Amino acid sequence: MKKYDFLVLGADGLQGVIATRYLLERGYSVFCADLYRTQIRKIMAKYGRGHSAFSFVDLRDIPQTARLMKKTGADTVVNCAEMDWNLNVYHAALEAKVHCVDLGAWIELTRRQLQKDRAFKKIGRTAITGCGAVPGIGSVMLRYISRKFDRLDSVDVGFSWTSNKKNFVVPFSIKSILEELTYNPSFLKNGKRVNKKPLEVSLERNFRLIGRQKVYMVQHPELFTFHHYFKSKGLENIRFFAGFPTHSLQKILTLIELGFHKEKPIALESIKIAPLFILPPVLKHLVSPPGYTESENLWIDIQGKKDNKKKKILMECLVPPVKGWESSGCNIDTGFPVAIMAEMIKKGVIKEAGSFAPEAIVPEASFFKELRKNDLAVYENGKVIN
User: Is residue 179 scored above 80 in pLDDT?
Assistant: First the structure.
């Protein structure tokens, strides 16, 4: 069998399609794997003739997944599947002795992934979890700006997006969205977790690219990873906020009201199926209307001290509609970074073995440079730095 440069898991999903196309356009060979083959078929036909292949895979089966990794010959796995399977993929990657990057997961799962540090060091491979937008771009922005503080007091981080038309288009993983808006969120205050009810805490901000929007506090892994890596600098206050345009948020809340967020299976004649797990493949068939575009602000508001003086810095990554990628909407700020970080491992820009989050290991200058090549600008207090 031909040896491939990368194996993309979850290749038929929103981010998997973007990461696969990105890597194919960069001249790499990509082996794609998923439970479905609806969207990726078109990408492979258009961008990957002779340089791509596909196989069905069930990530619940760790030995099967490890065998696939070995079979493809790819030394770097790009995991774009739902977060539930991140740890399974890590176990398979350790068995196959390959590098692995993914899009992140809930706090406890992220904690367990970072605990695999010694195991990945032992095989001389790199694993990075949370390589998308936030976590991902936001994580590297914090890594960059932390050097300008002697002490970090608080960090607010989040995303806010809008579209030019009021049609409902799935902004990113609908499963993740429904979980974020229905799980009890928490924030870190003086180093301790404080729990709130869904949508209980909100604030309104004026965002550089999209204007004024209300954002809601939700559960996110940055509460753990930011504190894990920067508590030595005093960081003990962390909040994460998600922002949606009103027309999109209303549709999402309707799905929740109708029970599509539920993970408990219901009986449908002779089978049982959970509403939350049938929704993603159904929504894959939604088509963006002609001329539809999205824009997004990723932001991180940092407060602390430098030379015993209070200091505040706002970092932003602006994601406008990118020519040729309009159909992917804002998802490019998740699909691009995970592919970029995988490529950085492949090219030896990232060399350290172990298990990490991006804020611990991704070199900021090189990463920001790659973002700018793809029209994603990074701002520090309103000034472009890449």
Answer: yes
CATH topology of domain 6-132+333-368: Rossmann fold (3.40.50)
Q: What percentage of the chain's residues is helix, strand, coil (to nearest 5)? A: 40, 25, 35
- Please name the residue that has the structure tokens 């491939």: 4
CA torsion, points 29, 33, 36, 41, in degrees to nearest 10?
10
Over the chain, what is the mean pLDDT? 95
The predicted model scores a pTM of: 0.95
- Structure tokens of 84? 């539930």
Whole-Å CA distances, 6 to 124, 197, 337: 18, 41, 15
Residue 280 has pLDDT above 90, yes or no: no
6: β partners: 30, 76
To which CATH superfamily is domain 137-329+374-384 assigned?
Dihydrodipicolinate Reductase; domain 2 (3.30.360.10)
Residue 202 CA to its chain's centroid (Å): 22
Q: Are 11 and 38 in contact (CB under 8 A)?
A: no
Residue 70 · residue 93 · CB < 8 Å: no
Given the structure tokens 């010694």, which residue do they identify? Answer: 118
The set of residues, in sequence order, having a beta carbon less than 8 Å from that of 350 and lying 6+ positions away, is 126, 128, 341, 344, 361, 362, 363
Query: What are the sequence ranges of the domains in the chain?
Result: 6-132+333-368, 137-329+374-384
Q: What is the pLDDT of residues 117-168, one digit of tens each?
A: 999 999 999 999 999 999 999 999 999 999 999 999 999 999 999 999 999 9
19 closest CA partner among 342, 384, 354? 342
Q: What are phi and psi of 355, to 5 degrees?
A: -120, 125
Prior bond to 290 cis, omega within 30? Answer: no
pLDDT value at residue 147? 96
